[in-house]
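Structure tokens please, single chain.
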Amino acid sequence: MRRALRSFAALAFAALLSAGAAAAAREPNPLFAADEPIRLTIRGPFGAIARNAPRSTDAHDASLALAGAAPETHPIRLSARGITRRRREVCPFPPLRVEFTAAPTAASLFRGQRRLKLVTHCRPAELFQQFMLLEYAAYQLLNTLSPRSLRVRLAAIDYVETGADRPFASRLGFLVEDVDDAARRNGLVEIDTGNIFEARLSPRDAARFAVFQYMIGNLDWSMDAGPRGALCCHNSKLLGAAAGAANGLIPIPYDFDHSGLVDAPYATPPPQVAVATVRARRYRGYCIHNEEARAAAAEALAARPALLAVLAAIPQLSARSRARASAYLGGFFEDVGSPEQVAQKLLRNCLR
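Here you go.
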């Protein structure tokens, strides 16, 4: 039985990789074509941005400089972003949005970039650097499972206040690929829409989305509805084969700081899900996708060595953080270790 399961999982994972390669229409832009950390200096009015973040996402003039063998400097506009992490009691230093005010040249590492999310360290304590690295790892885990995901690039960043000579902080952070670029890379387009019925989703991609979120213990999302007054969806975007596509919509998740894998101190489960802690997993995929969820679970199980290798390769992730994250993923692999386990641990909680 175990040998048959392993064979099935291996075949499923091979099929996934083959399908992913076929789906990718083009290579990523240079910034997201490699994993080596880059070094940046960002100059701007950080004091004003952080002070006003809870009530303002106004953009401010700033600059971004890349160090290395081919240094370059770009004028940018810089603003606070996010929801929870814009609150000063949560993150005195908020996540940022970087907007290029002039198109980078063809020789630039930032060629093709217009706007980027920057995930910052939130607080100066070393522990918060670890939380950031674990969120970075979550993106890379999904990249391992599917090209239909947002790529990320780690950066060592010197933050310099406007008019100052030296950094007030030097921390790791990471840049997140723009959704439009991820769509083009996969031969798709971003779909702007209101809330949708789950029947409009691609069953295969929706199931993989839900299984992945179960894997990292994330409950802070919706693949078919957005917050009140906002477009679909919550902490995810929809891609489709063409503008106005009615069906086969592909949900792409982001923002994993409320996951059990990261386990940030400010993270709490959403009120509509009755669990005591974000470390507790709860499957929230749709019952109509259960067959595809079984295949997605098998794919993830077959990818176990590659997924654990992601954690092993994260720069500056502490031994304690790595061991804790690996053990947390181990709980997922136990839950999907057999078809019976998948039915018991995941599918019995599916949403109808």
